[in-house]
Design a protein that fits this description.
With about 190 residues, this protein is α/β, with parallel strands linked by helices. The protein has a single domain, classed as Rossmann fold (3-Layer(aba) Sandwich), CATH 3.40.50.2020. The protein is built from three helices and ten strands, in the order E-E-H-E-H-E-E-E-H-E-E-E-E. The protein has a six-stranded mixed beta sheet, sandwiched between helices. It has a four-stranded antiparallel beta sheet with strand order 1-2-10-9. Strand 4 and strand 5 form a beta hairpin. Helix 1 packs across helix 2. The longest helix has 18 residues. Bound molecules: inosinic acid.
Length: about 190
């Protein structure tokens, strides 16, 4: 059980924003929708580490369809700020799967400026997949700097820094079952 009051993570305070129950319910809905849309397409889910590990685990378990799951690792945030560069730490070249003619679903924790997605989508596209869509747990539309439109979004949120459900501040807070938002008053 998590405290429902303010949490101090390193030097910042966070307050509850989306509960564990809200996350569970919405992610299950999304998983069911994806399973319906991809029936018989055997999609390959490419989950972006580290942040998407909890979302991806819950999402795939809600998807009653044949699919494959693989992982890529990108990093773009330093503490609570975007570096505006997506560093490829475990890239496409490390995948076992051939992407050609596959239906790809990129599974992200959050689309913020879109830097990571823009870079990744271009790389994926060069492998000639049958289709590419984005499934993201969170989306900050007002922070977006690229022409990206995630098809599957659990929650759109305002342009504030959040943690929990896999998302971190300085690699802390990932374990929280709900989403917590930075308390701007501090
Ligand atoms: P983008 O490349 O700017 O879209 O940022 C994508 C990555 O930045 C995400 O995969 C997260 O790892 C990180 N990020 C963006 N916003 C937040 C946030 O509010 N909290 C924690 N991490 C974030």
């Amino acid at each position: 059980m998590e405290s429902s009051t303010r949490l101090l993570i390193q030097d910042k305070y966070f307050v509850p924003y989306l509960s564990e129950q809200q996350m569970r319910q919405r992610v299950q809905e999304l998983g069911k929708q994806i399973a319906t849309d991809y029936a018989d397409k055997k999609p390959l889910l490419l989950c972006i580490l580290n942040g998407s590990f909890i979302f991806a685990a819950d999402l795939v378990r809600s998807m009653d369809t044949v699919c494959q799951v693989s992982f890529l690792k990108y990093s773009s945030y330093i503490k609570d700020k975007s570096s505006n560069q997506a560093k490829d730490l475990l890239g496409i070249q490390g995948l076992n799967e051939n992407l050609k003619d596959r239906h790809l679903i990129v599974v992200e924790d959050i689309v913020d400026t879109g830097t990571t997605m823009d870079k990744l989508l271009k790389e994926l596209d060069s492998h000639k997949p049958a289709s590419i869509e984005i499934a993201t747990c969170l989306f900050k539309p007002s922070a977006l700097k690229f022409n990206i439109s995630p098809k599957y979004v659990a929650f759109s949120i305002p342009n504030h820094f959040v943690i929990g459900y896999g998302l971190d501040y300085d690699n802390y807070g990932r374990h929280l079952s709900g989403i917590y938002i930075c308390d701007e008053d501090e």
